[in-house]
Amino acid sequence: MHWIDIGVNLTHESFAPDREAVIERARAAGVVQMIVTGADIASSQAALRLAQAHPRTLFATAGVHPHHAAALEAEQLPRLRALLAQPQVVAVGECGLDYYRNFSPRAAQLRAFEWQLALALDCGKPLFLHQRDAHSDFVALLRSHGAGTLKGVAHCFTGDAGELDDYLALGLSIGITGWFCDERRGRHLAALVARIPAERLLLETDAPYLLPRDLRPLPANRRNEPMNLPHIGAAVAAARGESSRACAAHTSAHARALFGLGADP
After folding, report:
1. CA–CA separation, 62 vs 85, rounded Å?
2. Among 126, 155, 212, 263, which is most exposed with the fewest C-beta within 10 angstroms?
3. Chain centroid to CA 160
4. Cα–Cα distance for residue pair 208/118, rounded to 1 Å
5. Cβ neighbours of residue 168 under 8 Å, at least 6 residues apart?
6. Nearest to 258 by CA among 205, 204, 206
7. Positive or negative CA dihedral for 141, 146, 148, 153?
């Protein structure tokens, strides 16, 4: 079985000592392609360098997370546009709104999100989207900036049935992480994943975050890795009433189609 991890933070400092080994462990586990998430200009540049160093195995996103929105100025948009022009960069983001933490003022988040929605329309690349406690504003902006034209994934979906319906109506794909494996917070997702069409479902680890709580044995450092994606995929497949092989096949096919990844390396 071959899997694709559409969201892994390989530029995170926790991977600095053994990044190459992490990539090899993932490949040994059947995770044949990974998309490295950019969260600001610097990490997007680092994600691109990783993708260039691992052609056809790693790809990158380029964007500014809502936590860093206050640092994004109009003068930096040409740099972001230049990153998005690189063939290894397959999505705009991580971008969106986060009213749970509000590390950036809401006005700055809205401005940065609108800029990146416009960039996505200009460059024709899908969005890698983040939303937390900001659903109404998030959906309103997506609707006003080309609903039906914009493509993308609602990264790390943890919402309710209403949010899922809104995202599907907008034409978005749905990214499921190890949150699904958390019996405290993810139990409601078991019923919802069965409602996601196969051609709209994507899988991601969001490593080093969101280590599946039911993983055994748990690593001593509690760091998530992309090699754990098959564990998440098996849990999602069971909830959908399908085999892991079928889940791997359709989520990988959809990832390749949405992000233009090409065949396995």
Report:
1. 10
2. 263
3. 18
4. 30
5. 174, 196, 197, 200
6. 204
7. negative
Q: How far apart are CA 113 and CA 107, in angstroms?
A: 10
Per the CB < 8 A criterion, the answer to whether 172 and 153 are in contact is: yes
Alpha-carbon dihedral sign for residues 81, 87, 39, 164: positive
Structure tokens belonging to residue 263: 């065949």
pTM value > 0.90 = yes
pLDDT in tens, 64-97: 999 999 999 999 999 999 999 999 999 999 999 9
pLDDT value at residue 265: 74
Over 148-186, what HEC string results? CCCCEEECCCCCCHHHHHHHHHCCCEEEECHHHHCCCCC
For domain 3-259, give the fold.
Answer: TIM Barrel (3.20.20)
Q: How confident is the prediction for the chain on average, in pLDDT?
A: 96
**Angle, alpha carbons 8-9-15 (nearest 5°):** 115
